[in-house]
Amino acid sequence: MINVQNVSLQFGSRVLFDNVNLKFTKGNCYGVIGANGAGKSTFLNLLSGKLEPNKGEVVVDKLMRMSVLMQDQNAYDACTVLETVIAGHKRLLDVQKRRDALYAKPDFSDADGVLAGELETEFAELGGYEAESAAESLLNALKIPREIFGSLMSGVDAKLKVKTLLAQSLFGKPDILILDEPTNNLDAKTVKWLEDYLMNLEDTIIIIVSHNRHFLNRVCTHICDVDFKQINIYVGNYDFWYETSQLLLRQAKDLNKKKEQRAKELQDFIQRFSANASKSRQATSRKKELEKIQLDDIKPSSRRYPFIDFKFEREIGNEILEVEGLTKKGFFKDVSFKFKRDDKIAFLCDKSRAVSMLFDCVAGAVRPDSGEIRWGKTIIPAYMPQNYDSFFNNVELSLVEWLARYSKDQYEEYLRGWLGRMLFSGQEALKKASVLSGGEKVRCMLARMMLAGANFLIFDEPTNHLDLESITALNKGMTNFKGSMMFITHDEEIISTVANRIIELSDTKIFDKDTTYDEYLSLDV
Hints:
The protein is of the alpha/beta class. The chain has 17 helices and 18 strands. The strands form four sheets. It has a six-stranded mixed beta sheet with strand order 5-6-7-3-8-9, with helices on both faces. Strands 14-15-16-12-17-18 form a six-stranded mixed beta sheet, sandwiched between helices. A three-stranded antiparallel beta sheet has the order 2-1-4, with no helix packed on it. The longest helix is centred in the middle third of the chain and has 36 residues, at 238-273. The protein is globular, with a radius of gyration of 29 Å. The two termini are 42 Å apart.
């Protein structure tokens, strides 16, 4: 068990947590969520002992072994891949070193023999004799080539380093497992393997920070919500927390509306009858009742959800999009596919630049070397490329002026309304386009797409730079869209809930099938 007792933490005048009390128990998986900057990763550092709170304490059962996913990819450059995995069990490594040092002594005594025997027993209990085979099993499961098991980490590809460090954190089935963004840079099938692995850890306390909602939905039994300088634990996965929190917020607002209406009625009564002697007693009574009504404060959550809804006026005909024999040297060769009505196609590929180039060609931004692209006469496409810097770099327009470029209606109030939907209210709408953050640029690009009134949408990694709240809103907008769509994203929840067809590009073949993402993952392709 982990007990968080009266924990407070602040940096300078900024308070992250104030008087937090929590319990984490065996067999549960806790997903830590919160707005950017709320302190999710900092909270993991408190739990792991890397940080000390200003007040209170984090109490961890001394008999429980904790493992933390390393973020420093270069920390084990002097070790082999296999040694790096085994290094995740520090106690085992310590016992092994002490035992080996004893055996290496030239003057090995009887006392040394007794101690060596004790260390041998502990080494066996910790699984030392099976350590290499257990580490190899993890590496094999993560699809790390056997030929690099003995290679130094310094020469290993970055993606394989990430997988090796993940194997390190899982090695030896720790009692407490702390994972900060464990799915970053993992392919879909490795993420699914990790989900299944974590779900089968029965006696482990698992605490995870992740922006992957599909992952959180599958593995989490509880959600830790970091908000209002507090952390509250709720039973259920991310979707359950989200729907419940939205329902409670609506109920609270409805209750306040009823109270406000009752208060207004009382105010009107007091104003009308306070000067009337015959009804002065009633007026006094109503005034007392009015004073007792306290409107519940609905705290302005640190979470802000943009409103994303793609609408179009022109209905889609039978001819939508046909791509035939498309080739761009160095990226893809002889790609063909044809859209049907209501198709929302997710594209998958190990080489993301290949799909980006394909989307550029389809959208008309780049000319292919060969092949044909035929659009239906009724189709109005809108494209959000992965690289949209050219829309903002050195653009000294305000956001209102920037958005006006893409709007038929030039009225400032109309444009401000659209910017407000995307969380640019008041003076924020007058920011220069050139100074926007990555997430702000994405929200502007989404507003531009909505204004286009397109009935065919093309998205190239639209969730890059977005927080969990904006990703959730985008997911809703993509799901509710009634037109056709082609997209690539590393957000599994979007693929799972939006796509009804999967196209996977590889060097040797094209997989193309009407199927859900979950069904695709179960196929041997």
